[in-house]
Amino acid sequence: MKNIFARISALLVAAAMTVSLVSCGNDDSSSSKSDKSGQESGISSAGDASADSSYVPIERDYDAKVYVEGNKFMVDGKEIWFNAVNTPWDNWNDFGGGFDPAFWDEHFGRLKDAGINSTRIWINCSGFVGVYLNDDGSFDKVTDKHWEDLDRLFELADKHGIYIMATMLSFDHFKDGNQGAESYRNMIKSRENIEQFVNGYVIPFAERYDDNDYLYSIDLMNEADWVFENAECGQIPWDNISQYFAIAASGIHEHSDVLVTAGMGIIKYNSDQHQGNKVSDEYLSSLSGNENSYLDFYSPHYYYWQKQWFGFPFDRSPESYGLTADRPCVIGECASLDEGNVTISEKYDMAYENGWNGVYVWTSNGVDACGGYTDVAPATKAMLGKIESLIYPFGE
Fold this sequence. Notes:
Elements: H1 4-9, H2 30-37, E1 66-69, E2 72-75, E3 78-80, E4 82-86, H3 94-98, H4 101-113, E5 118-122, E6 131-133, E7 139-142, H5 144-160, E8 163-167, H6 181-188, H7 191-209, E9 215-222, H8 225-229, H9 238-255, E10 259-263, E11 270-271, E12 276-277, H10 281-288, H11 307-310, H12 318-321, H13 344-353, E13 358-362, H14 373-391
Parallel strand pairs: 4-5, 4-13, 5-8, 8-9, 9-10
Antiparallel strand pairs: 1-2, 2-3, 6-7, 11-12
């Protein structure tokens, strides 16, 4: 396993799925939301992407930074398990757009009350709000408001002790009809443009919040599978998509201690048991020429429609599901409503018992028909009662 310390020291599906399948497998979630909401914010100021946040982290009597040791997440020598959710957005494209700090302050408090120690947030949902590209895909700018909103978000995460998995892009950026889709396609098809985007935005993001222990990981893209499979998202080859993963991962690793993952929509492209692991260490490093191009942990998504082709992840180990056993693995999305005669409480419990390192249920704030806080809170409270010392290793 290539973890932080090691780096410091040195079935088959007959036909590809061609429809856009997101969240609960319908268009009531991010896909349809982006059609309505990926609009210009009217903000034109070009922020200094390399500037440091002035926030002083809360002092604790332990080091709260999450790191990887073998196939476990650790905090200051103790294992941590992510009793987690997705809070993908409040207002689509919050950061640089309609960011409401009062919502995030209140919601992080509710998450803590339910024993939830981590959430996955979409930093960018689609289009140009906060982060801008030129028509040819070259990097343009990041607005001051984008950074200011994120500064406040991470202050609140630190205040409430909620670890953030920050998702930088989604397939929605590439989707027909969404603002900037052609620019994002042009970006990811060009190594030069990818390097500009990584150097102009991804690395400065990691550096800016590296000192805030509650940015624990960066998810490079939500469900890149659909960028490859679906005509409406460009059907871009994996060599291009994964080259972005490779260059971004090496940049993050070389400039911060933030962990890196990529939330694949299906195990299909995250496993050599299926269509090949498009985010393996070997594949990523071959595309970048850099040994620091690797993911620290895997975070595939699962919804019930996948079961007939790829199985059910909760009743087996990550390795049995098709992932490698050399790093932590979490389920990065799954419906918070019961499905397939399995309750959400059973999903959390089964995943823990079978060696997964966390579960991120979709969602905590009811952005679509998959469920919300009242659905997930009883399950996370039950897990807190079962494994409190793993959810809060230092008794918070």
